[in-house]
Amino acid sequence: MNSKTSLYIVALSILSTTPAIQRDGEYNRPQTANSLTCINQRMTQMNFCSSVSFVEQYVPVTDYKNRYKRIVSSAKFKAAYRNRSLGESILIED
Amino acid sequence: MEWTTPFNDINQLTQGSIIDGINWGDEDNPVSIVLSNACDLEHEHASYLIVAALYPASAIIGNSREYKGMTHQNGFSASSKKQKNAVENKLSDYIHHRTINRYYFIDCTASDLDMLMMVDFQRILSLPIDIKNSLRPIAQLNTPLKEQMMMQFVSYTSRIPTDRVSQEDEQVIKNKLLEEIIEFEK
Fold first, then answer.
1. Residue B66 and residue A78: Cβ atoms within 8 Å?
2. How far apart are CA B22 and CA B159, in angstroms?
3. Residue B38: its pLDDT value, please?
4. What mean pLDDT do residues B144-158 have?
5. Chain B residues closer than 8 Å to A76 by CB
6. Among residues A83, B32, B38, B89, which is most buried (max CB within 10 A)?
7. Residue A33: inside a domain, yes or no?
8. Do A68 and B59 touch (CB under 8 A)?
9. B59-103: pLDDT as tens digits
10. Which of B27, B59, B115 is the closest to A64 by Cβ?
11. For residue B56, is the peptide bond before it cis, meaning its omega torsion is within 30 degrees of 0?
12. Burial bucket for residue B111 (CB in 10 Å: 0-12, 13-18, 19+)
């Protein structure tokens, strides 16, 4: 087994054991743990076939506070809301 | 008083439903609230789902020009008692929905959100109704708050600009009014 083949096997091993990257409220990738088969039989000497699947996976969200911490500290939020008026008010009750 | 109730079935999506999964095009997307008419959703007359974004009330108010104008430059803690009272009165206006403006306050602490939120009537999105199946239900804004929110949304978006009297004329009117009030008090 040459060094290039070894490198592919190491990369494949890492991908196959890495859990999906979880970030609140976003579509994440990759979900590889259950989609590993083989890329190249000749290269890996494996006796099964397959591909690595990069599937969009929606991760359910529970940690809204951390997500909103990132949102309100972002440059986009500050540009939209910092030093902006709350708007003209129409009094409806006192 | 309960602001929201649990909402678990996306097939029950209606006006005032608080949902997650709308792509606002941001790196981290805000949670949304449905503005679409309840009848349109119920009878499948809606081709598009209209939503508004929810943001933490503290971030909206704390970043605002009005808040910064009424507090000490080093923030609320360094403000005088008079300034603190002014801020508290401003917060009361929002909590009790005393005024109609760009934002509508909702206490979402009883839901998974667990935060005090503002609906931003300027951040609105319309998406094909099919997106409904990919949304995550969070909570439902209770009646009559959802109707009140819609009333404020409609009032806010239907404001009509009118000419204003000049500052000089305004002062003349104020002086006349005050004279009459003083006369009335005698």
1. no
2. 28
3. 93
4. 94
5. 26-27
6. B32
7. yes
8. yes
9. 999 999 999 999 998 889 899 999 999 999 989 989 999 888 899
10. B115
11. no
12. buried
Dump pLDDT digits (tens) for B9-34: 999 999 999 999 999 998 899 999 99
What are the φ and ψ backbone dihedral angles of A28, each rounded to 5 degrees? -120, 155
Residues, chain B, total? 186
Domain around A31: 3-61
Tokens of B7: 């909402």
Contact B119, B106 (CB under 8 A): yes
The residue behind tokens 């789902």 is B49
CA A53/CA A93 separation, integer angstroms: 58
Domains of chain B: 4-185 (2.30.30.110)
What b-and-e string marks burial along B94-105, b requiring 16 or more CB atoms within 10 Å of the CB?
beebbbbbbbbb
Which residues lie across from B104 on neighbouring strands? B119
Q: Which of A72, A74, A76, A82 to mutate to test the interface with B (most CBs of B within 10 A)?
A: A72
B49 bridge partner residues:
B127
Q: Is residue A92 part of a domain?
A: no
Q: Which residues of A touch B155 (CB under 8 A)?
A: 90
Extract the tokens encoding A3.
């060094």
The model's pTM is: 0.73
* Residue A75 domain-assigned (yes or no): no
Q: Tell me, yes or no, whether A10 lies in a domain.
A: yes
3-state DSSP call for residue A72? helix
Nearest to A15 by CA among A41, A51, A42: A51
Domain count along chain A: 1
- Using a CB-CB distance cutoff of 8 angstroms, which residues of chain A are in contact with residue B134? 58
Q: What are phi and psi of B155, to 5 degrees?
A: -65, -40
Closest CB to A91 among B26, B98, B113: B98
Q: CA angle, B98 as apex, B164 and B88 as ends, to 5°? A: 105
What is the CA B163 to chain-centroid distance, rounded? 26
